[in-house]
């Protein structure tokens, strides 16, 4: 079976790393800008009005379908009778809504029945518009965050699909979700098919990232479903680095037509080995889908998205390529040696703000002819200058590893940017520390430096900054405990009290 040849399509160690979480979209030509402006005035208002009317009607039908049902009823048994008929009308309304927005959907292959494949696996997941596939597949149950179901508007439509809820605040949520998926997929009752986006987050469709194994735990036949958007201007892709959802929606609604292609692949029946190993099952299905899509597979995960988000929130250097850098570091074995952290304790370059590639590879103790090291260097190189600011690289790496707190990262940044080697930062060294750890502006950072250095000594120390920050409300977050820390501290107190009581 083709699925067993997953390794044949997997990315090789020498392949160029793609960043699936970045999407660039700009109207480049004058004609595109004029057309968009014209259709914004002429077409957009009509489409928005039609979509709103159809959504309101759909919401009313969903409210009717949910009338007299509790959430427990929806979780215990599938809806039947007139309520099941109502789902067909909701599908018609949903399809009409997409057509009203200019979306033309083309199908390839044939959807399997629930008896043939209780679970539909959809990939790649690249836009909020992917949700429309529920209307084209007969209103299957979806996996959704509990908070989404609480929404008074869209929540009604979600609840009527009889979704499997994920409780993000519940530590047992993952296991409970898997149990519910297994229960429904193997049930003899007439539940709808379960629709799952196994990637768990949106990408730019340049590759298939790691599939979460949740859909594969039941060990039942699944049907892979591929989604493509073969448009000249990609106005739908919604990633962590790129246009906002509102901009994408505007540009999509101002296109005369937008195309979506949905391909139903043959049902995949797992082997006995795959039934015992959901991760192997997921990997092999991903390989089949990647081959059909003509894209590589890459071992990115949802956790990589969180890593990038944290880097962006802190304004760490080159936050948009942090995930790429981490993957390349893993290939070089630097995640094991942690040589960057050792470098902080003993800065050995006289001017770390401008080092060549040869120096870079030497500091990391890797071969100068290693392509992965060269790629990291290129990611930090500006204007093809032939040099990088090594401090930016080191701070970016240590800032997202070990789940460090902001205060600890700030302390490390003081060391990294200490060109004097004496624990004293000049104004030029101090400014990038606050810019790249606390996301402050250059102007604010210079002003803070001048306030701390009120005696005009020309430098500040880490302790001096802390004394200043402890008195300022805007830095209170540096010294406050997170929810996890508070929980750990409370548990520690409870445990200590138990010990004392005995």
TrEMBL record:
The chain crosses the membrane at residues 37-67. InterPro entries: EF-hand-dom_pair, EF_hand_dom, LPCAT1-like, Plipid/glycerol_acylTrfase. The keyword Nucleotide-binding does not apply. Signal peptide: none annotated. The keyword Cell membrane does not apply. It is found in: Membrane. Its main location: membrane. One of its GO terms (molecular function) is acyltransferase activity. Residues 368-403, 405-440 form the EF-hand domain. Pfam families: Acyltransferase, EF-hand_7. Pathway: Phospholipid metabolism; Lipid metabolism; phospholipid metabolism. Keywords: Acyltransferase, Lipid biosynthesis, Lipid metabolism, Membrane, Phospholipid biosynthesis, Phospholipid metabolism, Transferase, Transmembrane, Transmembrane helix. Belongs to the 1-acyl-sn-glycerol-3-phosphate acyltransferase family. This is Lysophosphatidylcholine acyltransferase isoform X2. It comes from Nicrophorus vespilloides (Boreal carrion beetle). The lineage of its organism: Eukaryota, Metazoa, Ecdysozoa, Arthropoda, Hexapoda.
